Amino acid sequence: MYTALRLQRQLKAELRSGAVEIVVVTPDPYMTYQPFLPEAAAGSISPRHVVVPLRRLLDGCRIVIGEVHSVDHAERTVTLSTLATEEEGTGSTRLTYDELVMAAGSVSRTLPVPGLADYAIGFKTVEEAIGLRNHVIEQMDIASSTRDPALRDAALTFVFVGGGYAGVEALAELEDMARYTARYYHNVKPEDLRWILVEASDRILPEVGEEMGRYAIRELRGRNIDVRLGTRLETCEDRVAVLSDGTRFPTRTVVWTAGVKPAPVLASTDLPLDERGRLRCTAKLTVEGVEHAWAAGDAAAVPDVTADEPGRTCAPNAQHAVRQTKVLAENIAASLRGQPLKEYAHKYVGSVASLGLHQGVAHVYGRKLKGYPAWFMHRAYHLSRVPTFNRKARVLAEWTLSGLFKREIVSLGSLEHPRAEFELAAAPPPPKNGPRPL
């Protein structure tokens, strides 16, 4: 989205004359600003303000909502399916191009853990974030109404796997939300809820540094969150999470945030990949050894020209991805005009992370912050990076209103099955001699 946005500005005259066309192929008609997913899950931000509608922002581009299955760069063709091809029964269609930009990003990296596919929840899309919020509140409803102590304990036990940004921020925000929500239940107290963070390494939030990582652990444990370092999830079959240290937790909630991997579509191209499955790129954001192919973001292994260590590539994070798009758009425009290209170079300035409302850690420009200042910097930084003034204003207004009014504690789980009630109403009545509903 950022590349297309900048490219339509760079090529405004060419677009107006019809000399070029920018086509964006994406499975969703919006871009998700992922750093705000934890706050969307906690109800601090409306889900519709976490996403940016592409058709509104990219009014100079042609938007194709579809899924790419393969790329044949030698023939300059992309094979994809759209909602129309599915309805027509044709299965797929082909799209030709002159210049290719691969910005497919990454997907959740899963491991062959028994029961993971059946019971775990991811945390990479806005749908998963809202689904997780609904799920947590529903578990509190179950615990409040059941007479079975085992079911109650399982419903109030929440296991998060992965101590990076996604896992720590999602757990901290949801724990904050659930603790607040518990005041509206007559028989569920905050101390009844059990939160467990499982991390395979010996630290969490490695991006903010070891000292700030230790502070984050102290803060989480001070909120009665069980942080397990050097521990792995062995199985979660039959709604029982078994850890590598031998402990067992009956639970109805396992959230998997243990890393990402490049989008699978990269393996269906004839472009060169590195050992991690990312596209081999040059510092000018061209695909190595290939003409008319470009890449940026998590899908691209871009050399870090600022690093002292030779062969090092830019970390797959949003800080690099957003900045790469500016150079990428300028280089594509320069290539079309026969002008020289420039290299991408950005020195890492630091990291910020939220630990719930008014709590956070930050390591920026060599300075270490914690508590409220770090939380404020986290919000200020990400607000500055949200695209369009319209989105910035909406998010800021929601933050302001959330400080004046109480949290919303409603679960809208029926959104996941919107036709369920209508199907029940439209179903034929039971036979006269059959069982009557109570």
Give the % helix: 25-40%
Determine Rg (CA atoms, Å). 24 Å
Report mean pLDDT, rounded to a whole number: 90
> What proportion of the residues form beta strands (DSSP E)?
15-25%
Which features characterize this protein?
single chain; 438 residues; alpha/beta; 21% strand
What would you say this structure looks like, in words?
- The chain is an alpha/beta fold.
- It is built from 14 helices and 23 strands.
- Strand 14 (about 240-245) and strand 15 (about 250) form a beta hairpin.
- The N and C termini lie far apart (about 50 Å).
- About 35% of the residues are buried.
Helix/strand layout:
Layout: H1 2-10, H2 12-17, E1 23-26, E2 30-32, H3 37-42, E3 51-53, H4 54-57, E4 62-72, E5 77-82, H5 83-88, E6 93-96, E7 100-102, E8 106-108, H6 116-119, E9 120-121, H7 126-145, H8 149-155, E10 157-161, H9 165-181, E11 194-198, H10 210-222, E12 225-228, E13 233-235, E14 240-243, E15 248-250, E16 253-256, E17 260-262, E18 279-280, E19 293-295, E20 300-301, H11 318-336, E21 350-354, E22 360-364, E23 367-370, H12 372-385, H13 389-404, H14 420-426
Helix pairs in contact: 1-11, 7-8
